[in-house]
Amino acid sequence: MKTIPEAPGADSAKALDAAPASARRARSANATGAAPAHPPRGRRLLPLRRLLAGAGVAALIAAPLAALGQAAPQPKLPVVRLQAGMHIVLAEVAATPQSREIGLMMRERLGPNEGMLFVFEEPRAYCFWMRNTLLPLSIAFLDDDGRIVNIADMKPRSEDSHCAAAPVRFALEMEKGWFARRALAPGAQLANPDVFPGQARRR
User: Fold this and answer.
1) Is the pTM here over 0.85, yes or no?
2) Helix or strand or coil: residue 48?
């Protein structure tokens, strides 16, 4: 199981429920960054409110895997669609302590433009590491408006800490280099009013 060290200057509460790091079904994203206009067949896209309402079920499903010392990835989580200009992300949502703790551990592949969105209850300077994570990843920490605060590249199976530069409630993990290849840097915005409360207020 992952534990997450506190970020320097972060809230004193440890982010033990905030562990990510991972690996997903992966073919590398195409160089153009183009994404399918619609999610793959059978993929569920749900508003975040419904995902959070069913979060207890996801935690129960993932619990037996944690007991195995994470020898296998957790089952696929519900998916939301995020948009950054012309680029589309299909992100599994890890919204419970258990699902966040396991994250993308033991995933061997990530599909094109797939990732995992970590959703926390309170804004803090959360930190992530890569124990039991097989794929190299990039993580973007996002504020309530969906804007990127900072991005970090993470090496597989590393226990180095990668922390948010400011208190946030969202973090998005993608295959390594995904953001850079699409010229998405701090200040860029990912959009979905059902996910980011700052966007919902401006509807």
Assistant:
1) no
2) helix
